[in-house]
UniProtKB/TrEMBL annotation:
InterPro entries: AAA+_ATPase, AAA_lid_NorR, CheY-like_superfamily, P-loop_NTPase, Sig_transdc_resp-reg_receiver, Sigma_54_int, Sigma_54_int_dom_ATP-bd_2. It comes from the Bacteria. Residues 3-119 form the Response regulatory domain. Residues 141-370 form the Sigma-54 factor interaction domain. PANTHER family: TRANSCRIPTIONAL REGULATOR (NTRC FAMILY), TRANSCRIPTIONAL REGULATORY PROTEIN. The modification 4-aspartylphosphate is found at residue 54. This is Sigma-54 dependent transcriptional regulator. CDD domains: AAA (cd00009). Keywords: ATP-binding, Nucleotide-binding, Phosphoprotein.
Amino acid sequence: MPKILIIEDEAAIRRVLGKILAEESDTYMIEEAEDGANGLEKIQNDDYDLVLCDIKMPKMDGVELLEAVKKIKPEIPFVMISGHGDLETAIQTMRLGAFDYISKPPDLNRLLNTVRNALDKKELVVENKMLKKKVSKNYEMVGSSEPIEHIKGIIEKVAPTDARVLITGPNGTGKELVAHWLHEKSERSGAPFIEVNCAAIPSELIESELFGHVKGAFTSAVKDRAGKFEAANKGTIFLDEVGDMSLSAQAKVLRALQENMVQRVGAEKDIKVDVRVIAATNKDLKTEIAEGRFREDLYHRLAVILVKVPSLNERRNDIPLLVDFFTQKIAEEQGTAQKKFSDDAIKLLQEYDWTGNIRELRNVVERLIILGGSEISESDVKLFASK
């Protein structure tokens, strides 16, 4: 049931607006506030689907109220009510995020259409936020241990922002999953997620891969080619194993982060890009900096938010959940019935030293499903998962 707050210092206008809305729909819940300060207090303490707000009011005017509410509850649509002399101010409120404005005395049809449209928009915003909270199962981070819950909490706070994130941790721990999760829960989720494995690209080609090149820039450059930064425009670029990037490429990445500009190899023209950068590494970048292999200024640009992904040995309590997740996934991939692991089998897996982390566990689970019995036993684990 839509809840609408009318903020207006003239009681007669409040009554008229309330009556119009009540006659339009008996599902509207109408509340009133006699000035901006009272309206702000109500908004802070309750949830509203729409606010109809006068511009000129005592204590706090409509512009001040709009600015205050946009900081705490930006999803609430505001429809401003303006006198003839307030039109310039009304237009200013549109720039500040108001949904629309209506002149006094309000035109009945205009008012009702605006209210319907504003409520529709609010519903779409809420649905969109709910969808963003549902991360694709392909990139689900499984676990309920304290380190994983900590990471999930960081992602919830950081994903909606454009803050750069540096993800650290050993190989096979799921750093790529964290990067995907950050993207999928962000406002950029509908735009590209471009992944670059910096360790897999030869140092002489990394600049061309990241920034593109123009025809003739080098022997094999037979035509112009856009780089990964351009491909990720409006989206996210994930620089995996960033610690393996050459110093020359690091300098260009630093410039891209500082100026939001890239330059193709062999070109003189700058290209503006709007890209969120997430990086990951299994190296100790502080050591790399001390030994001259990584730029300190680039480190500080990348590490606005640091996320350390724990090894599997640091989150052994998650192994039962991970085994269950992998057995479901493997059964779906192979089109077979899901096998069960005995309690003793799980307990033994929790005692192993997982040097290869999640990746190794996944391989072991698949091996046990293929080679083990109808129920994976402790003896199956000893036979097929031994180190």
